[in-house]
Amino acid sequence: MSTSHLTDLIEVRGLEKSFGDQQVLKGVDFSAESGTVSVLLGPSGSGKTTVLRSLNVLETPDSGLVRISDASLDFGSPPTDKSAYRRAVKALRARSGMVFQSHNLFPHKTVLGNLIEGPVQVQGRDRDEAAAAARQLLEQVGLAGREDAYPSQLSGGQQQRVGIARALALKPEVLLLDEPTSALDPELVGEVLAVIRDLAAENWTLVIVTHEVRFARDVADQVLFLDGGVVAERGGAEVLTDPREERTQRFLSRVL
Ligand code: ADP
């Protein structure tokens, strides 16, 4: 199943992770080319979020390799020198942005304040440049003119769109989205999926954990079906319409 190419922007090899005596990931392998949308699907508890969080080291895998672009870390034999390890983690984190289930915006900061916090404080970018870039991103997510609003003045769907803009403000090479619509009221799901569709159309490299199977069918270049701690089936969007594996079939018949 390992079909990695030099052109792959993301490479994951042999990822293993246990919580206590529960081994959640038992050797997860996949790769993704630049400009593609990968969707992680699978039963609840199959480790989708753990894989996603491992990509930007919010979880530390027990072993396996993660590479994004030119930054990589082999968790099985990490640099023994602490500062070299920290540098490798930082390099990997700098290449991806994360959108969480619930947006986690700073409630006491305006929309603009939320968007420029990371670029200015973490990346040391110029405030005016960061603000101009943030306004463009707000336009991209359909929230032009809302820069002075506070999160509590926005709907859940608008807040999540700010969450996406905030992740993009850090200029990542890859955007990781962890069930970005699952905390939303049903009527607000569509507007967030529309923004993600636009990003896909603009050739952003996306990795998405979602239960929205119909959406996944529309946007996925690659579907990774996780089960039993491994990628049990991998393919294009046809995995969702014509799965080969019985466990994928069973899963889809439950959720569709
Ligand atoms: P999924 O996203 O597919 O629902 P997760 O990656 O969230 O699966 O979780 C996989 C398994 O690992 C679950 O059984 C979950 O309870 C467990 N798990 C995840 N994070 C932790 C943690 N920080 N501590 C203990 N167990 C965890």
Account of the 3D structure:
The protein is of the alpha/beta class and 256 residues long. The chain contains nine helices and ten strands. The chain has a six-stranded mixed sheet, sandwiched between helices. Strands 2-1-4-5 form a four-stranded antiparallel sheet. Strand 7, helix 6 and strand 8 form a beta-alpha-beta unit. The mean pLDDT is 94. The structure holds adenosine-5'-diphosphate. Keywords: ATP-binding, Cell membrane, Membrane, Nucleotide-binding, Transport. This is Amino acid ABC transporter ATP-binding protein.
Write a brief caption for the model.
The protein has 256 residues and is α/β, with parallel strands linked by helices.
Topology:
Blueprint: E1 8-19, E2 22-33, E3 37-41, H1 48-55, E4 63-68, E5 71-74, H2 82-94, E6 96-99, H3 111-122, H4 127-140, H5 156-169, E7 174-178, H6 186-201, E8 205-209, H7 213-219, E9 222-227, E10 230-235, H8 238-241, H9 246-255
Parallel strand pairs: 3-8, 3-9, 6-7, 7-8
Antiparallel strand pairs: 1-2, 1-4, 4-5, 9-10
Helix pairs in contact: 3-4, 3-5, 4-5, 5-6
The protein binds adenosine-5'-diphosphate.
Residues 19, 24, 42, 44-50 line the site of adenosine-5'-diphosphate (ADP).
Q: Helix- and strand-based class?
A: alpha/beta
Q: What is the string of SSEs from the N terminus onward?
A: EEEHEEHEHHHEHEHEEHH
Q: Count the strands?
A: 10
Helical segment count:
9
Distance between the termini: 26 Å
Mean pLDDT, nearest integer?
A: 94
What are the distinct ligands in this entry? adenosine-5'-diphosphate
Strand content: 25-35%
* Global morphology: globular
What percentage of residues falls in helices of 4 or more residues?
Answer: 25-40%
How would you characterize the largest beta sheet?
6 strands, mixed
State the low-pLDDT regions, or none. Answer: none
What Rg do the Cα atoms give?
A: 18 Å
Order of strands side by side in the largest beta sheet?
6-7-8-3-9-10
